[in-house]
Amino acid sequence: MFFSGLNLTAPINAALLQVTVPIVVLIFSAILLHERVGKRKVTGILIACLGAFLLIYTSRGESASGNLLGDLLIILNATSFGLYLVLVKPLMQRYQTITIVSRIFTVGAVLVLPFGFSQLLTPTYSSFPVSIWAAILFMVLGVTIVAYLLNTWALRYASPSLVGAYIYLQPVMAILIAVGLGKDVFTWQKGLYALLIFAGVYLVSRAKQRVREEQKVNFE
Q1: If residue 27 lies in a helix (H) or strand (E), which one and from where to where?
Q2: What is the enclosing helix (H) or strand (E) of 73?
Q3: pTM of this structure
Q4: Nearest-CA neighbor of 23 among 46, 2, 4?
Q5: Are 179 and 186 in contact (CB under 8 A)?
Q6: Angle between the 21-32 and 68-91 helix axes, to the nearest 10 degrees?
Q7: Calpha distance 142→120 (Å, rounded)
Q8: Which of 57, 23, 64, 24 is closest to 42 using CA atoms?
């Protein structure tokens, strides 16, 4: 859904719509895991969401106009990933990270194959330059396998809402890398929006720590 949506809509739309993931995680966590949703956690997610929205929107390099179907696919992708973070949390108490991720990818491959098999045969792979193969390798290993392994492993020690909140750091890292490569300019506005994101994530993490302290006091 993400790549199909990205193919139909503008990249800025996809980036902006992805900031809904932590909100989806918060809602599903409250409904399915009965996770406590305090004011500090909600405030943190909203502040980080605002910072990510402003950072992405002001850094756009093209029009934000996109295709409605593409936007819908991006939203469905964000919802699916948010639900995944919530559903996989209980599994982390019983199984190893590599076990969960390998099973997820195996089932996912079977489900995706009927939709993507014809597209898999379309390209002329012999004409791909080294740069394209390097990009594909990075997408498979870095963006997919390693990212899911780390996300799933983190759920063993953190709540889904906290793991989801760290998604807001993606635009910050993207801009820092772009500045480092000389493809973007860091301004005080971007620095301010980045601080909003860090402040929001900090509030979410503090909310979790506060809950642990209260549980410890009640236990004692």
Answers
A1: helix 21-32
A2: helix 68-91
A3: 0.71
A4: 46
A5: yes
A6: 40
A7: 20
A8: 23
Q: What is the pLDDT of residues 73-99, one digit of tens each?
A: 888 888 898 898 888 888 888 899 999
- pLDDT 10s digits, 98-143: 999 999 999 988 988 888 888 888 888 989 999 999 999 998 898 8
Q: What crossing angle do the helices spanning 39-58 and 188-219 adopt, rounded to 10°? A: 160
Query: Is-contact 1 116, C-beta < 8 A?
Result: no
Structure tokens at 11: 């990249």
Who's near 204: CB < 8 A, 6+ residues apart?
40, 41, 44, 45, 48, 161, 162, 165
Rg (CA), the chain: 19
Residues 92 and 156 sit within 8 Å (Cβ to Cβ)? yes
How far is CA 218 from its chain centroid? 34
User: In whole angstroms, what is the distance from residue 113 CA to residue 109 CA?
Assistant: 6
Structure tokens at 85: 């973070």
Query: Using CA atoms in the order 198, 35, 215, 169, what is the torsion angle rounded to 10 degrees?
Result: -10
Owner of token pair 């994101």: 197
Do 82 and 24 form a contact (C-beta atoms < 8 A)?
A: yes
